[in-house]
Specification:
This protein is mostly helical. 86% of the residues lie in helices and 0% in strands. The longest helix has 85 residues. It starts with a helix and ends with a helix. GO terms for molecular function: DNA-binding transcription factor activity, RNA polymerase II-specific; RNA polymerase II transcription regulatory region sequence-specific DNA binding. Pfam families: CASP_C (PF08172). InterPro entries: CASP_C. Keywords: Coiled coil, Membrane, Transmembrane, Transmembrane helix.
């Protein structure tokens, strides 16, 4: 039997078991619901019967009390009649009234006795129906409990059977790489032949990737050499520019003569490179110890300035080439990383195919190198640390996540760090200025208040002193 048929049969068994489990759970839920509904209905019915029974008992007690009252009234009437007949004979009208009263009481007593008998029969009938209802409810409850226990047993059996087939996902995961083999391969070929063909295709793919990897490594090394040369050239150009700037600063420090054609007293301070450039520019006939020709220094400065501009332009071109080489190097590095990841995945496939019998282990250096990388990627400690870091990050509050992201953004970018520094400095300066202005305003207000109080006191002392003295004299008079 082929692998696909076995896998389909296992899937069919698992699906049937899951369907049976869901069906059993549904039936169990329906039985529980039905059991709860019937229990509630029986409880309500029993409660109603008990209520009717209590009412009938109350009515029977009331009727018994009324019958006892009527018996007492009848006995008292008989006793009074006997006493009256013994004392004296009453007229015929009174005897007729007493006979009528006695007969009415007897009729009422008979009616009450019949009502009591009817109530007693009702009570007995209700008790019998209650007993029968209890028996029926007990039998139904026992049947439902038996069905519930049977469903629970079936559910346990299905769950045990499902646990026994818990390795279905693992088998499916192991057989998943073999599905392409069974889909496009010939059904008559054995599994070993299909695995060998798949292994050959993977080896050819690995060889192609290895060749492309070596080509990319060569290109990367070549680009690194070019980048190194460009950096060395740029360093040399910077040194030359620094020397030229130093020479220019020396030339600018030389004092110009008072008039054209005047003798120079400090020509010996001109550096040797500038003298050589002047000799090359004006020819070898220039005097060594005489005065420079008219406008020679200005011409030399223009030459050096133009040379400096050329060097600056060349430096900018080299920097642009360096940036382009850096971008190319980054792109190649990312491509190299992706190829390395593909090679690791390919080695994982080779490792899986080597796990089958009949396939020996290889001792290639490339496979050994990628095997070490594959084992490093399967390191449980690194994966655990990544998961713990992710869990810690997910457990943070939203504002903590925003603060962490903002901090990472600011610290990872030079421009963001500069802006954050100057923004913080500006805020501190603004706070200091506001505090200084508030303190100065408070000091000015306090000084103004003190000055006004002093002026007011001086005014009172100066202009109202005589008035106060005259008023005091009038008071003493």
């Amino acid at each position: 039997m082929s692998t696909t048929s076995k896998l389909e049969e296992a899937e069919h068994k698992v699906q049937s078991l899951q369907t049976a489990l869901e069906k059993t759970r549904t039936e169990l839920f329906d039985l529980k619901t039905k059991y709860d509904e019937e229990t509630t209905a029986k409880a309500d019915e029993i409660e109603m019967i008990m209520t009717d029974l209590e009412r009938a008992n109350q009515r029977a007690e009331v009727a018994q009390r009324e019958a006892e009252t009527l018996r007492e009234q009848l006995s008292s009437a008989n006793h009074s009649l006997q006493l009256a007949s013994q004392i004296q004979k009453a007229p015929d009208v009174e005897q007729a009234i007493e006979v009528l009263t006695r007969s009415s009481l007897e009729v009422e007593l008979a009616a009450k006795e019949r009502e009591i008998a009817q109530l007693v029969e009702d009570v007995q009938r209700l008790q019998a129906s209650l007993t029968k209802l209890r028996e029926n409810s007990a039998s139904q409850i026992s049947q439902l409990e038996q069905q519930l226990s049977a469903k629970n047993n079936t559910l346990k059996q299905l769950e045990e059977k499902l646990k026994g087939q818990a390795d279905y996902e693992e088998v499916k995961k192991e057989l998943k790489p073999l599905w392409p083999l069974t889909s496009w391969g010939d059904a008559a070929k054995p599994l070993e032949v299909l695995l060998m063909e798949k292994n050959r295709s993977l080896q050819s793919e690995n060889a192609a990737l290895r060749i492309s990897n070596s080509d990319l490594s060569g290109r990367c090394a070549e680009l690194q050499v070019r980048v190194t040369e460009a950096v060395a050239t740029a360093t040399e150009q910077r040194e030359l520019i620094a020397r030229l700037e130093q020479d220019l600063s020396i030339i600018q420090s030389i004092q110009r003569p008072d008039a054209e054609g005047a003798a120079e007293h400090r020509l010996e301070k001109i550096p040797e490179p500038i003298k050589e450039a002047t000799a090359l520019f004006y020819g070898p006939a220039a005097p060594a110890s005489g005065a420079l020709p008219e406008g020679q220094v200005d011409s030399l400065l223009s030459i050096i300035s133009s040379q400096r501009e050329r060097f600056r332009a060349r430096n900018q071109e080299l920097e642009a080439e360096n940036r382009l080489a850096q971008h190319t190097l980054q792109a190649l590095q990312s491509e190299l990383d992706s190829l390395r990841a593909d090679n690791i995945k390919l080695f994982e496939k080779i490792k899986f195919l080597q796990s089958y019998p009949g396939r020996g282990s290889s001792s290639d250096d490339t496979e050994l190198r990628y095997s070490s990388q594959y084992e490093e990627r399967l390191d449980p400690f690194s994966s655990f640390s990544k998961r713990e870091r992710q869990r810690k990050y997910l457990s943070l509050s939203p504002w903590d996540k925003a603060t962490l992201s903002m901090g990472r953004l600011v610290l990872s970018n030079k421009m963001a760090r500069t802006i954050g520094f100057f923004y913080t400095l500006f805020l501190h300066c603004l706070v200091f200025l506001v505090l200084y202005k508030l303190a100065w305003s408070e000091s000015v207000e306090r000084d103004c208040a003190t000055f006004c109080a002093k002026k007011f006191a001086d005014h009172l002392h100066k202009f109202h002193e005589n008035d106060n003295g005259a008023a005091a004299g009038d008071l003493w008079q």
